[in-house]
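User: C-alpha cells for this one?
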Amino acid sequence: MKYLDTEEFQSLNKDETIYGLQILSKYLHGHFGTKVFVFIDEFDMPVNQLVYMNRMSPEDRQETIELFQLVTQSLLKGNNKFVERSLSNACQQLGGILLDSANNVKLYSFMQKHSFAEFYGFKEDEVVHLLKVANKSDHFDLVKSKFNGFLTKSRDGTDINMYSPLAIINYISSDEYVDEWSAGIRSEIFKLMGHPRIKEKITLLMNGKSVEITYRKKFDLTHIDKLSRMLNQNDVDDDGIDLFVQFLYEMGFFYPIASSDESLTLKVPNTTH
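Assistant:
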C-alpha cells in the first residue's frame, strides 16, 4: 500500500492538511471494520522548531500553531467516530498546546509517575541481560557509573533508575562512552546557559546541587515567544529563567527529586542523590 507521495504531500491545500488524518482514520475504519488507535511520536517537534525560528513573527507562530490545532481537532475531537483512542508521545510539555482543541486529553509529565514512565528507558535488569548477551557482564559497574542517572516512578510509586537506551546500545556496540549531556545540545542552548542570570542555576546543578523551579503544566503562545526570544536574542527576564530550566529538564538533562503542584526540585543525572 502506498501511504505517502512526496510531491502530492508538498502540494496539499489547507483543507487537505487539516482533514487528511481524519479521512485516513475513516479509510482504516472501513478497511478493518473497527475503530482505530492513533499513535503520534515526537508530537512536540513542530512547537520545538517554532522556538528556534528566529525570524518568525509571533503572528506567524500563532497561525502555524492554530493550523496544527485544527489537524488534531479534526482527528481527535469527540465527533470523529472512527478513532477509539490516541497516544501522543512528546518530551516537551510545550507540545500540549497543539492538543488544546481535542477532547478528554490527559497530559503526563516526562519522568514522573504515570503508567508509561518505566517504558521510557532500560531498567537495571534489562541492562544486565543486554550486557550478558553481549558477553560484557563484567562491564556493569562501569555502565552503572556512567549511565544510571534518570530517576522515575513505577506504576506503584517505587523509584526506578532508568538507563538511556541509545547510550546503552552505543556502548555495547562500541565500548565508547558518549557524553549525552552535551552531545545533543544546540548552540543556542549553550549560549543561553552562559547568561549570568541562568548560569547561576546551571552551575549549582553541574556541581551536584539541587535547584527548585516553578513548574508549568500548561503553555500558550506567550511562553513559546518568550523561549524564542531567549534562545535567539538572549532576552532573559525573571519569569523566563525557570521556563528555560524546565525546557532543559523536559529534554532529559535533569531529573526531579521532589515535586508539588507548582514546583519541581531538579538534579543532574549521575550526581550524588
